[in-house]
Design goal:
The protein contains 9 helices and 11 strands. The chain is α/β, with parallel strands linked by helices. Strands 5-4-1-2-3-6 form a 6-stranded mixed β-sheet, with helices on both faces.
Length: 340
């Protein structure tokens, strides 16, 4: 193997390390942080402390599963941002220290570019269908909702994005409000599978162009539940599957309307999705169904590459390494990145 890249991801509440050998995934280790469940959301200070505890064992495990020694590494790719500053600081500092001690380059990666390229992660012995450039990616996570045009592994254009909340936030906050737990997406997804998506309707936003808005639909659910509970205190318990199914359908309708519009406007029919919300079973079914109807070629990353993981960071870093990019040691993490 000529290029062995270690990827490090620590932008939020997952500490992850992965090893890529010539672009093929050799290992991908993720330590999730259960400590946040009790609080119904990620507590930044607890997240950075957990990253500090996890980073060394997670990297060691990734190297050992890949049967690679630290001295075999060619470069280290790490998430510079966007994300929680304290969390990013752990991964960034670790990458710098390891890079210096091994005398190898470090390469900063925008976390969102990792999600955009997640579909390119190849595993040994597995056939991977990858989109052709240019493609559109519906990038939907706890912090972002965007439609991005990807022209090459290094060239991206945001065609539309949320003007307020991210769609993952809508899942999480509404789940918390209904007492269903955190993270909300997987719980609502599971309950939605048992309910009637046409039973209730929630207000959809009217936002021009390809931008999104999710704060209105969240408020619409909040007021609906409040009013119904005033009439029947057991309303939520009796109807939670139908509420989840209807709410999830509304969010998917909003996402798909703009994705369809973006494909129509650009003429691009290579369609991918990324980010935690792209694990949603209803959304995945809809993308495939719309794709079949509209002649799209659709590519959905495997579940394990939809949420935060270092495999996608190593992949994005690998392309940057091949393009000759190297990051200076005075690099600092950033919580926000306005563009790519
Ligand atoms: O990409 P991600 O792991 O973290 C970042 O935000 O960067 O995404 C986390 C988000 C959370 O909001 C979570 O509720 C959502 O992804 N999520 C889902 C599902 N699995 C995770 N949302 C809907 N359906 C799911 N099955």
């Amino acid at each position: 193997m000529s290029n062995i890249i270690l990827g490090i991801e620590s932008s939020c509440d997952d500490t992850s390390a992965a090893v890529l050998g010539d672009g093929v995934l050799l290992s991908n280790v993720i330590a999730s942080q259960d400590v946040h469940k009790a609080y119904g959301g990620v507590v930044p200070e607890l997240a950075s402390r957990a990253h500090e505890l996890n980073i060394v064992p997670v990297v060691s495990e990734a190297l050992s599963r890949a049967s690679v020694k630290a001295s075999d590494l060619t470069a280290i790719a790490f998430t510079r941002g966007p994300g929680l500053l304290g969390s990013l600081l752990v991964g960034t500092s670790f990458a710098k220290a390891l890079g210096v001690s091994l005398g190898i380059p470090i390469i900063m990666v925008n976390h969102l570019q990792g999600h955009l390229l997640a579909g390119f992660v190849r595993e040994e012995g597995k056939e991977t269908r990858v989109p052709s450039f240019p493609y559109l990616c519906l990038l939907v996570s706890g912090g972002n909702s965007q439609i991005v045009r990807v022209d090459s592994p290094l060239s991206y254009t945001i065609l539309g994005q949320t003007i307020d909340d991210a769609v993952g936030e809508a899942f999480d906050k509404c789940s918390k409000m209904m007492g269903l737990g955190y993270p909300g997406g997987p719980v609502i997804d599971r309950l939605a599978g048992q309910g009637d998506p046409l039973r209730f309707s929630f207000a959809k936003p009217r936002v021009p162009g390809l931008d999104y808005s999710f704060s209105g639909v969240k408020t619409s659910l909040l007021y609906f539940v409040r009013d119904e509970l005033a009439k029947d205190p057991d309303f939520l318990e009796k109807n939670k599957a139908d509420i989840c199914a209807s709410f999830q359908k509304t969010l998917i309708d909003i996402l798909m309307d703009k994705l369809i519009k973006a494909s129509r406007q650009t003429g691009i029919k290579e369609i991918t999705a990324g980010g935690g919300v792209s694990a949603n079973s209803g959304l995945r079914r809809r993308i495939k169904a719309e794709g079949a109807k509209r002649g799209w070629n659709t590519y959905l990353p495997e579940f394990k590459f939809t949420t935060d993981n270092a495999a996608m960071i190593a992949m994005a870093g690998y392309y940057r390494y091949l393009a000759g990019e190297r990051t200076a040691l005075d690099v600092a993490p950033v919580s926000r990145i306005a563009d790519y």
